[in-house]
Structures are given as C-alpha cells and as structure tokens.
Design brief:
- The chain is globular.
- It is built from six helices and eleven strands.
- The strands form three sheets. Strands 1-4-3-5-2-11 form a six-stranded mixed sheet, with helices on both faces. A three-stranded antiparallel sheet has the order 6-7-8, with no helix packed on it.
- The protein is of the alpha/beta class and 208 residues long.
Amino acid sequence: MNHFLNQIINHPLPDNQYYKDVYNKRQIVIHHTVSNGNAKNVINWWQKQKERIGTAFVIDREGVIHKAFSSAHWAHHLGTKEINNTILNKQSIGIELCSWGSLKFKNDKYFSSTNVEVPIEEVTTYDYPFRGIRYYQKYTDKQLESLKFLLQYLCETYKIPKTYIPEMWEISKSALRGDKGIFTHVSYRKDKSDCHPQKELVEFLKSI
C-alpha cells in the first residue's frame, strides 16, 4: 500500500474550485474522463468551470494517481436531477479513469467522440451494447491496479463496504438513496456510460 501512496501526485485545484466542508463519506463513484491519458489536463479543465466540478482523484493511463483535493472534501461530479443531488455529492468520493470511453466504428477503425483514432488493441467490444454502445476504450491493467488499491484504501479509511453491487451498471435505487457502497456514474444517470463493465474491472470489483 505504501508503494501506491508514495506515487500519488498532487495537482491541487484552487481553493475556490471545490468545497472544504467535511462530510461523512458513504459512497465511492467511478467515472471515466472522455479524454486522452493526461490527468493534469483534466484537472486544469476543471479550473475553468464555475460550478466547482471535479473528483478527488484522476488515474492516468499509466496508473499514476493524481489528487485534485482531499477525499474528505467534495466537488460536484454526479449532476443528477434528484432533490438530494447536493447531498450525494457531499457524501461521495469521485475517481476518474482517463479514457476516451465510448467509440465510433467507421472505415474499419475506431474513433473517440472527438475523432481521435484508438488502436484496436485498446478496444473492448460488447456483444450486447452497453448504454446503446458496443465499442469502448479499455481501461489499462495499470489503471485497474491503481484503482484497486485506491478503493481498498478509501473503503478502509471511511468504513465503506467493498461488497460488489451488480446494479452499479444500471440506475441504482441504492446509489440514489445514498446507501453505502461502490458505484459508477451510470448508477445515477441514464445519459452516462462511465464506467463501462469491462471484464477485468468487474472481476476485480468482485474480488476486493
């Protein structure tokens, strides 16, 4: 565990870009960025948003964990239309995985939403479309290794159960109620596809 703790890089958001209020954490929410592998660019983009949008951690494609602010604090990262949206944000810790996410297939090639070509070896294909989409950029082994460490560390720190919740891949009443656990952005919103249920991700979530 110390190996990962020593490798966390601080890229702090300015104080006015998140909230330093401390709330009891009940949930961890996994996202992906819909961007390239540069975590620093993701955090820099958040600095331009007035709404105090961000997550505590961003994991780049090499598995390096970048911290934007303390996990004890909070920023907006869910964007639900529920009346308890602000409370859900306060009580959850967001983690972003750098990934282009959903891909388009054309002319025998795969492209991001911004028309960046993604090599075929980085593509995972679903027999049955996930959130209406068959092709996604894979999360890397290094990312998943770092994510596993981070989930274990945060769950132990905040007494959040690590039990695998199958409904995390669809709208989840448990997530929207604020029940304790690990969820994904798709647990809260029908218009999101982060994260997608990549086999390797599902397997380690079941094992922790």
